[in-house]
Design a protein that fits this description.
The longest helix has 28 residues, at about 95-120. This protein is α/β, with parallel strands linked by helices. Helix 3 packs parallel to helix 4 and helix 4 (about 95-120) runs parallel beside helix 5 (about 140-160). The chain has a single domain (about 5-220), classed as Rossmann fold. It is globular. Strand 5 (about 125-130), helix 5 (about 140-160) and strand 6 form a beta-alpha-beta unit. It has helices spanning about 10-25, 35-45, 55-65, 95-120, 140-160, 175-180, 200-205, and strands spanning about 5, 25-30, 50, 70-75, 125-130, 165-170, 210-215. Belongs to the short-chain dehydrogenases/reductases (SDR) family. One of its GO terms (molecular function) is oxidoreductase activity.
């Protein structure tokens, strides 16, 4: 039975992916900072909860201990940063450092820790990206630049580890709590639910195209 680690699995895309993998009879370990929400999701969806903050080295060590063998790492946990989104000219640098700590340094640190297990399994790394990594949207300079950095780390990791499948995936705009924080007071009910992006991620796992950056909308979907 293959094993996956999904960060940010208490809600949104992370939870939807974890649940879909469980339905495929994967062993799934999920993490999130909100312990109560994570444990509730784990009970309902059938995965193992390891609550904690992915920026904490001790928590990352606990995650590695929970999955000595690993076929798939999904670095999904993200931080939007301040809301409303501030322009770069007024972005407090301490808050921007926090965004990079969650969106760039933590995924790299966790990947470094789990590389031996992933390499042994000829496994898959999926870093969840955003269109803000490649488009210049006003107010999105903090989050977008962090995701752009993550995209580049993903690309180089794929070049350095050709035995792995290493992907940055832009899931598109989804109806999540984080997306709502980006648009406070606005109605985002026209965005698709996170589950709508899951078939594209499953298709990626099934097809195993070359390492690189992909948009969920361009990937073949798997039921």
């Amino acid at each position: 039975m293959p094993t996956a680690l999904v960060t940010g699995a208490s809600a949104g895309l992370g939870r939807a992916l974890a649940a879909a993998l469980v339905r495929r009879e994967w062993t799934v370990i999920g993490d999130a900072r909100d312990a109560a929400a994570l444990r509730s999701a784990a009970r309902e969806d059938g995965f193992t909860a390891v609550p904690g903050d992915v920026t904490d080295p001790a928590h990352r060590a606990s995650l590695a201990e929970a999955c000595p063998s690993l076929d798939l790492l999904v670095n999904n946990a993200s931080s939007l940063g301040l809301s409303p989104l501030p322009p770069l000219a007024r972005y407090p640098l301490a808050d921007l450092e926090d965004v990079y700590r969650v969106n760039v340094f933590a995924p790299l640190a966790l990947t470094q820790l789990l590389l031996p297990a992933l390499t042994a399994a000829r496994g898959v790394v999926i870093d969840v990206s955003s269109d803000a990594a490649v488009e210049a949207y006003e107010g999105w300079g903090g989050y977008g630049s962090a995701k752009a950095a993550l995209d580049q780390l993903t690309a180089v990791l794929g070049a350095e580890h050709p035995d792995l499948s290493v992907y940055a995936v832009d899931p598109g705009d989804l109806r999540t709590a984080m997306h709502q924080r980006a648009f406070p007071g606005e109605d985002i009910s026209d965005r698709p639910l996170p589950s709508a992006a899951v078939p594209a991620f499953l298709g990626l796992l099934d097809e195993r195209p070359p390492s690189g950056r992909y948009r969920a909308a361009d990937l073949p979907a798997t039921a």
